[in-house]
Amino acid sequence: MMSLPEKTRLLDSLFADCRLLPLLNIERLADVLPLADALSAGGVTTLEITLRTPLGIDAIALLRAERPALTIGAGTVLDASQFAAVQAAGAAFVVTPGCTEELLEAGRDGLIPLLPGIATASELMQGYRLGYRRFKLFPAEIAGGVGLIKAFAGPFRDAAFCPTGGVTADNLGAYLAQPNVMAVGGSWIAPPQLIAAERWQDITALAKAAVAAG
Ligand SMILES: O=C(O)C(=O)C[C@H](O)[C@H](O)COP(=O)(O)O
Q1: Beta strands in the chain (DSSP E)
Q2: Coiled-coil stretches, from where to where (predicted)?
């Protein structure tokens, strides 16, 4: 089993080539492969399927089987049983909006890395105490945005963040310019209305623009 420092290194390696984490809510299973291909064509290498819809687990398993070159994370994981389910479906890592003791322990003891969600120094320190050094900052813009990430760089010198929630094409560059930003996440690269309309080329264009900003 991997230690937390090994899981930290694995997370860093997933974003070494592309610091983007498009967040996908899957409403129709038929969208999964064309959507993943549209993002790949734009240069995306890692994406997050949320459990916000009941198709999340099936979508993760489908991508794992059909698009093995992509790295698939699972998002909106809220408890240890969901952690176990996405791990079994083949997720490469787990992202959560917040952190509970149960989830932090599941991420420590599980087979795949957890990127726990935090919005305050105190939440960060609960994970830090166990050995976590990589965190999702959620909701990034509301919690303090780039200013908060800069402030965290003072006391938490070896921590890095994946801001998510309110990241757009307009503020993406400011986040990526921070040395303690490991990646940025969000739905702006594959907006629900473009997925619903199967506008795959528009999604490729949004992905290309975001990759260019990184
Ligand atoms: O579902 C989760 O796991 C979350 O924690 C929330 C998402 O990360 C944000 O809602 C994405 O925010 P937008 O990019 O502004 O749409």
Answers
A1: 20-24, 46-50, 71-75, 93-95, 114-115, 117-118, 134-137, 160-163, 184-186
A2: none
